[in-house]
Amino acid sequence: MEGSPIPVLTVPTAPYEDQRPTGGGGLRRPTGLFEGQRNYLPNFIQSVLSSIDLRDRQGCTMVVGSDGRYFSRAATEIVVQMAAANGIGRLIIGQNGILSTPAVSCIIRKIKAAGGIILTASHCPGGPGGEFGVKFNVANGGPAPDVVSDKIYQISKTIEEYAICPDLRIDLSRLGRQEFDLENKFKPFRVMGPYVRKVLCDELGAPANSAINCVPLEDFGGQHPDPNLTYATTLLEAMKGGEYGFGAAFDADGDRYMILGQNGFFVSPSDSLAVIAANLSCIPYFRQIGVRGFGRSMPTSTALDRVAKSMKVPVYETPAGWRFFSNLMDSGRCSLCGEESFGTGSDHLREKDGLWAVLVWLSIIAARKQGVEEIVRDHWAKYGRHYFCRFDYEGLEPKTTYYIMRDLEALVTDKSFIGQQFAVGSQVYSVAKTDSFEYVDPVDGTVTKKQGLRIIFSDASRLVFRLSSSSGVRATIRLYAESYERDPSGHDQEPQQLQGSSSRWRICHRSRATLRSLVTLSWLVIHSPHEPQEDGTCNWKCTMSWEEESLRCPGSEVQASSCCQNGPTCDTLQSKHGFYLWNGKDHEHTSLTKVKHLYLILAKKPRSKS
């Protein structure tokens, strides 16, 4: 017991209108908003705690963790002070406040806690100029479902006060048990420590110097915490040397991962998920309980579907967001789930778990006595290869994205769009199916609408357009392209990375060169008139205004006021409004500068009679 009883205070406050959690991602905002806006963090924490029924809250156990980013320590202290004031009986906290997202999920399930609060913005940058986030996981260990998130949001809009114990201080660096006596009832804290080094080095015997960047830093050492080829260049270059046979990268809170093989062989997240699914017999857990089914987010490539078909188990296609998998796993329908955004997990938790996925890969390597590349190429030979890439257009105004997606939905869901053909170079794509994806939960019948626009072509290629708000107050439009190659002779082509412009276009996965056609086609679709030409193809012309932002289509760098040197001619119209007319058919070399709205005025371009 430390000192005399600590008082509980009630502090008046006023609500904010922007504290709606974004599904499984929780509340993500610029760090400065949490740090500098009066009561911004306490308001949301109180809303989270108040969403738990009072009878369940009093004396319960909760888990608190963070990814160690800037402002995490101060925020953890606030969470502790408010949890105590709201009657939480015990907190399990990571040493220095650090616990990965999958670790929080595991602890919640293991000790049957009421839930957990995770201070993370996942793969978003940290630091004073970066982003911060608060995520709430419920009693099953998974992200708060929509009904809970909606409840939190409703509370946040009417909040008038919050409870806190401002004099409560704990030593987050000290392992062990810390007890405090409050003016209301409050029970002990326990603190748990780091585990990556413990598991890979201490338990599995990997050399200590093989685990790098393991010291938590508030700004992540100036590095981006997203584990992909763009940001893990140090690991990629080390693997390219050929000295190492296996490489893995994790994000800040441990729920995302990336796998590299010898000579820098990259395993895409969709391929990784499919390979794990096809080799679950290498894992004792699954040999004992069997495989019930698989789950993937809709944008994730359909590589998993082919494995599921061969194993004669169901595969569930859900919206993006791990919370949709929780119901499937709770009901015993799903054993393995994954997303194209480097997340994989199984029914042992209700979160994606990067370290678990890496351990599974090591188990597969040990069981098959093959290297990473050999395992993946054997998989392609059996199931075919799914080439896949993703573009992110980031930092958009929400109003802008609303108009983009509204008009695009009207175009692709029009019945006349089915059967249209689009010529891109020597390839002709025929539209077989389009829809605005909606998900009906097979467990409780909940319907989730408008989860992305899908265009599926007759050759099984796909284009997906999806709006994401996971980056905070600004919005992101994600474009996904997928192409299937069954012929083994097409599996050995060296993947090429599509080029992007400024930091706003980020290529998240490697893609085969032929994916250029699909990405070019995505622009053709966006700009397409509703009526095809006599031969079924669409020639098109678009007008785009610019003012503030910047955007570049895949290809070489060309100024908007000039014509393309390596492709079709570009027409330029000078006017006081700065309109730029672009003939984009078979176009891979155009740059558009200072685009304010990706809002297109469509018109048919007369076909040449030559």
UniProtKB/TrEMBL annotation:
PROSITE patterns: PGM_PMM. Residues 1-26 are annotated as: Disordered. GO terms for cellular component: adherens junction; cell-substrate junction; cytosol; sarcolemma. Keywords: Phosphoprotein. SUPFAM superfamilies: Phosphoglucomutase, C-terminal domain, Phosphoglucomutase, first 3 domains. InterPro entries: A-D-PHexomutase_a/b/a-I, A-D-PHexomutase_a/b/a-I/II/III, A-D-PHexomutase_a/b/a-II, A-D-PHexomutase_a/b/a-III, A-D-PHexomutase_C_sf, A-D-PHexomutase_CS, Alpha-D-phosphohexomutase_SF, PGM. GO terms for biological process: carbohydrate metabolic process; myofibril assembly; striated muscle tissue development. Residues 23-162, 199-263, 271-383 form the Alpha-D-phosphohexomutase alpha/beta/alpha domain. The keyword Phosphoprotein applies. GO terms for molecular function: magnesium ion binding; phosphoglucomutase activity. PANTHER family: PHOSPHOGLUCOMUTASE-LIKE PROTEIN 5 (PTHR22573:SF27), PHOSPHOHEXOMUTASE FAMILY MEMBER (PTHR22573). Belongs to the phosphohexose mutase family. This is Phosphoglucomutase 5. It comes from Oryctolagus cuniculus (Rabbit). The gene is PGM5.
